[in-house]
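Example record

Each entry pairs one chain with its bound ligand, oxidized coenzyme A.
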Amino acid sequence: MGKALDGVRILDFTHVQSGPTCTQLLAWFGADVIKVEKAGAGDVTREQLRDIPGVDSLYFTMLNHNKRSITLDTKHPRGKAVLERLIKSCDVLVENFAPGALDRMGFTWERIQALNPRMIVASVKGFGPGPYEDCKVYENVAQCAGGAASTTGFDDGPPLVTGAQIGDSGTGLHLALGIVCALYQRNATGRGQKVLAAMQDGVLNLCRVKLRDQQRLARTGVMKEYPQYPNGKFGSAVPRAANASGGGQPGSIVKCKGWETDPNAYLYFITQAPVWKEICHVIGREAWITDPAYATPDARLPRLKEVFQAIEAWTMTKTKFEAMAELNAHDIPCGPILSMEELAAEPSLRATGTVVEVDHPTRGKYLSVGNPIKLSDSPTEVKRSPLLGEHTREVLAELGLADADIEALSAEKVI
Ligand code: CAO
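Structure tokens for the complex follow.
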């Protein structure tokens, strides 16, 4: 079966996490992704966080599936000549260098356009235009600068970063969408364009509801869905809401049987208004169905602490899976806190290809997260990441370079 992006050629100058997530997605949708790596070194993550000496790290392998790897010194004049040929033969150049690196290499937007007017140049940067546009940025910096850290954590604790890589992988996702849109627009215009996804912007986009709350707070001085209500204090900025959903349907994390020894024996419980009656039956608080102090969502807001204490008294008598089964039978929204150990072993995620086992020539078998986006006419086959420079000769031959030229580049350590 064909793939959605069959025929699209990506010149992949990405490294570390944010850019590679983007180009991995494009590869999973069928694009031919040619990853250009520094001759003799490669993507720095090949050797970061290694668990097996001398073998590409899981950090690298899990972010670079389905790509081809070529080594090329793009600062060497002969390397630049090869790069020109690559630019002429590809549809998209994706990069997440520090600001200005591509220009310093001699490949400005104007130069790339002169070489290939159809080329789309897609970049991840830490910040968009403004005071911080020249700054280098990593995941947690983006989480802090994009509003996630100030709104995550407990009221009496410091700002917290989250394990979900919303700065890197989140921005990679944003960039991938931008690239696909630019490819679509090119069908009409025949022209390439620049695509920019700034990590601060991507994180802020994912924190959209917190900017909503900032404006609600500014208008009313209080947010009744937050744990600070009714006994705590609100300042002028959106506070950290701990595990409160803070949304239209109050929710929280509650303990389950075994919480004393198992750090993940917890359940997220949502007191969805349409199933309030069922919740009261399940937890044995039938009186709350008609009691005016509990019967409506508004009446419950000042009593959420007490409500969740009663719910927890019930969940503590069940394992998280028992509680989930019982609550789902009544259509009450909830979810177990699943550890990475549990997710890795979950059969349904294996069945859908969301968790896949991949074989690698030097590492052996390892687990990875497959394509989370499923297209019915473009199924994803996860292929192992390339070894450093594994496809250099193949790609250069496709560009029309003769064997003797390739040997000369190799002798000069350009590839
Ligand atoms: N041949 C020759 N030189 C190459 C090359 C190649 N194939 N590929 C890269 N280089 C050069 C670059 O041109 C650059 O040279 P100059 O500094 O002389 O211009 C140099 O390698 C280093 O690139 P870099 O500045 O991008 O790398 P860094 O390790 O210093 O910074 C990072 C890393 C991630 C902080 C920075 O790239 C960045 O801020 N990127 C944008 C934001 C981003 O994506 N962050 C997420 C990272 S994942 O957590």
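The chain has a mean pLDDT of 97.
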